[in-house]
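Objective 1b. Sequence-to-structure analysis of Gfo/Idh/MocA family oxidoreductase.
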Amino acid sequence: MTTKTLRAGLIGLGMMGRHHARNLRALDGVDLVAVADAQGDPHGAAPGLDVLPDVDALIAAGIDYAIVAVPTQFHRDVALALASAGIHTLVEKPLAFDIGEAEEITAAYETAGLVGAVGYIERYNPALQAMRKRIAEGQLGEIYQIVTRRQGAFPARIRDVGVVKDLATHDLDLTAWVAKSQFSSVAATSTRRSGRQDEDMVSITGQLEDGTITNHLVNWLSPFKERVTVVTGEKGALIGDTLSADLTFHANGETATNLWESMASFRGVSEGDSITYALQRKEPLVTEHEAFRDAVLGDASNIVTMREGLHTVRTVEAVLESAETEQSVALGGSVRA
């Protein structure tokens, strides 16, 4: 239980903003005292509160921290205004529209000593939280490969970006987070099949700085929904399904080695036992809000930092460059804290 009641503000009352409002209203130790959106409150997310016109009015309401859920093109201006006012801030993913803006935002919060975070809700899925904990405890041993599949129908609310910035950004972030290693290179192929200007399908092959190889299949042209992360290591594989919040472990089995001489040195595996873990299926957005509240109060152990968000923006840009040039793209040096 928290000991101080924090005054929270929210800017952006669209599709995602309404869910932030619902969670802020129910969050222990927090009062949602101000909301802002130039378009009003179309979903009735903030009954009883005046809808302020802009970020300046939100700041004037006297808030301790803010949630930014405006369109990505406005992230820079809103986040910098909040930083200048000394307000801790969580910005919905992606951190910014391009790497230059992401660097500017990150520097502003780090220089001011403020808590800055990015809203990558998939990290807070119970299956992925449990997966990362088990990997850190050594259940898989050395990690060899991470594969993600994120497929589904086109969301009509998306108008300004393609599938890489809208969906693949989740997989790039969670992959680096699960492995505790950032991307060193990516190679991508994308296509446009829906008649929109931006890409609607992408296939990404990558490598992390620790040598892990990755593959990400993302599209919004599938007649079914799939959200799967598979991590394979020396002791077996973990499969996380973030739709059902299930986590399954497949252990490597014992296998006889009395093979012919040419195969004697091959270290293969066979099917072993598998187990699906019982998890507490808590809404990921609830966990995300609890983590950011705790960060404002001094425990920043479970937030997506802006520096991590900066690297994800850099990886996204590398993916788009690779798809455009049909060449593998190497990323720069480490940017993680």
